[in-house]
């Protein structure tokens, strides 16, 4: 196994607890955490780190005392190319997949993508109505250049078909599944299970505080302006940083709970994704159809 390429991949899915898991994993002395959590190198259609040398540089400080190094690119599960490319490079790679109730995941991802500046439709119901055109690549209220299918929430938040495809590519002993419910309810037990999967002695943090809570931009136009300047700098090859843009974006945010879903949106999600949730249950050997028994926010 190459020591220049990580051997542990946290494939996502987005808004399913990957940030918390990687934060806690990074505290273990035998786990190496790269400086960039989501390099998206292996996804051919959504590659944010195209140069192999740049990707390898993320792992240059990985020491022989660290048995595992992870890549937590959250769109790798959704990508049709990421896992095949990973296996070609690292046949013995291990994979962790985070799963979440679509009734929670969809509004959470919609809120996050608004915060990131990629989702231009602030109303969830209206954004869901754009699913079909986004799924085929139309930039319907999507930031130019960002993959529209990521924001086709009925597709990208349907985890059953994605896990089914993953299981056809990866040995079962190299796969570990975690539900957001378990992570929220019993983080110590979940993390202990991860350490057993990795054959590591469990070392738990002293506290499990909430990480990556829902946020909104105070002034969306200010955020889009600072993001545009940052994109322009990257295109011009300007690498020096004064930290002004990062500072602007950091002060232009506030925590804000996600409002409960309306009854019609709940019904729509349940009708469209019930079959996929049944497929997911079959794939992971655990019945999660209870997710749709009652609205959950």
From TrEMBL:
Keyword Transmembrane helix set for record: no
Pfam families assigned: Sulfotransfer_1 (PF00685)
Keyword Glycoprotein: yes
Transmembrane portions of the chain: none
Keywords: Glycoprotein, Transferase
MF GO annotations: sulfotransferase activity
InterPro entries in the cross-refs: NST/OST, P-loop_NTPase, Sulfotransferase_dom
Domain Sulfotransferase: 7-226
PANTHER family, per the entry: BIFUNCTIONAL HEPARAN SULFATE N-DEACETYLASE_N-SULFOTRANSFERASE, HEPARAN SULFATE SULFOTRANSFERASE
The name this protein goes by in its record: Sulfotransferase domain-containing protein
